[in-house]
Amino acid sequence: LADYLPYSLTRTWHIQTGIFWIATAFLAAGLFLAPAVGGREPRFQRLGVNLLFGALLLVVGGSLAGQWLSIQQKLGLDAGFWLGHQGYEYVDLGRGWQIALFTGLVLWLGLMLRGLGPALRLKDASRPLVLMFTGASAAIGLLYAAGFFFGARTHLSVMEYWRWWVVHLWVEGFFEVFATAALAFIFARLGLVQPRHAGLAVIASSSLFLFAGIPGTFHHLYFTGTPTSIMAIGASFSALEVVPLVLIGLEAYRTSRLQVAAPWMRRYRWPIRFFVGVAFWNLVGAGLFGFMINPPLALYYMQGLNTTPVHGHTALFGVYGLLALGLTLFVARHLSGERPWRERALGYAFWGMNVGLALMVLL
């Protein structure tokens, strides 16, 4: 089996497909929410969405095939870099597929701006929320460009710096802000969170990202001789980024407990439970387990041991995986209207995922 699916390939596919799936759910939820925020669906939006979906299939299929060919030594160094495997986690896909993915993200941003346009021109209480949602959407597309600042023969220290910009600022940073903005908007529309609190949470999240996100990247640079003092600054700032999403999740949970008898609350209870699960794992997985391996002592002597996959899985799946599932369920619940769901399978899935993730960490 290892001759056809070596460990380096299965590890790459494991991470890459997870990121692709989560990103797809985020993009789909954004395309669903943008016209809802703006109040109307622009002309030809459907054509743009279908083009984006086709491009996504091409990038996913092409990059996974290219990685297999590259690891099987069927591509040379230059062809492998452009069409195969760059060799760096989170930006494993070949540079050609990376450019295609970036082009898709820019197309997605254009579709988002078309949908959000009418809301951006309004000057009401929801304006700060709409502005931050737009800013988070823009950053998801544009910050991925940091992955273009190194080449096939760039020195490891330079490459590591820009790779961690993609991981920390794209995955941890603005996915965090986009997640907070999306949940704040949904919770405010559902009546779970006061609009003012939702706006403040998104502003706090964006501010923490702007002031904490960039220095927070420094705690990743342990392979490049970064001084301990800089590592400590990065660890401290990085730990602050989880706070707004935790607070808004807590308020939503408390409100949902008070309004559990409301008919609309019963319809949306499983998406809401997934969102509350996001807030829990954001505190525990991204916050507690993340900070446990962030200080310089841990980074230099414990990195790569059991504490690292504990943080990796509880943060990436616990926060973004559950959020992607919650957003998908929210869209599906909205599209199905008043029609009742058979929810037993959803209950098994929700508790199976959360208890399973907890058992994986404990065991």
Please describe what this structure looks like.
This protein is mainly alpha-helical and 363 residues long. It has 14 helices and no strands. It is 77% helix and 0% strand. The longest helix has 35 residues, at 156-190. It is globular, with a radius of gyration of 20 Å. 42% of the residues are buried.
Estimated structural class:
mainly alpha
User: Overall 3D geometry?
Assistant: globular
How many whole angstroms does the radius of gyration measure? Answer: 20 Å
Written as H for each helix and E for each strand, in order along the chain, the element string is HHHHHHHHHHHHHH
> What share of the residues lie within helices?
over 70%
Q: Tell me about the largest β-sheet.
A: none
Give a brief description:
The protein is mostly helical and 363 residues long.
SSE map:
Layout: H1 7-38, H2 45-71, H3 77-84, H4 95-120, H5 127-142, H6 156-190, H7 195-216, H8 228-240, H9 243-258, H10 263-267, H11 269-292, H12 296-301, H13 307-335, H14 344-362
What are the main properties of this structure?
363 residues, mainly alpha, 77% helix
